[in-house]
Specification:
two-stranded antiparallel sheet; alpha+beta; globular; 20% strand
């Protein structure tokens, strides 16, 4: 099974200049804890709710002036939409991530897949992936 068959396709990006308060509100509205950061139609990073808490709040940043670029993670876990779910699961295990951004062949963001998405089709594999990620943390 290809990852494109199970990925979520309605992924929204923010620009690196998006204010953190606006970004957090977008997370709340979308009911997500993860937002890709895109610049000039290309992935630049990601911001999680955890990034906001640890790098922003606990890092004593001024959240009213803080931007996505100030808190984002630059290393992005991604794969292509035509990759097999088992291969993507292995990449998630290797990268120790709970979400993987999905790109088209021209490296445009087309979706995201989470452990929850994978668990629906690969119960045994996602359980091992979750166990490996939890043990690494």
């Amino acid at each position: 099974m290809k990852v494109s068959e199970i990925m979520t396709t309605n992924v929204e990006c923010v620009s690196p200049d998006t204010g953190i308060i606006d970004l957090a509100r977008k997370m709340k509205t979308l009911d997500v804890g993860f937002i890709p950061v895109c610049e000039n139609d290309r992935l630049a990073g990601t911001v999680t709710d955890r990034d906001i808490v640890l790098r922003g709040v606990a890092g004593v940043r001024n959240l009213s002036t803080c931007k996505a670029r100030d808190l984002m993670t630059n290393q992005i876990a991604w794969c292509f939409e035509d990759e097999d779910v088992k291969d993507v699961t292995q990449k998630m295990r290797d990268e120790e991530v709970r979400r993987m951004l999905i790109l088209s062949k021209d490296k445009r963001l087309v979706g995201v897949v989470s452990l929850g998405d994978i668990s629906k089709v690969e119960e045994k594999e996602s359980g091992k992936t979750l166990k490996d990620i939890a043990e690494a943390a």
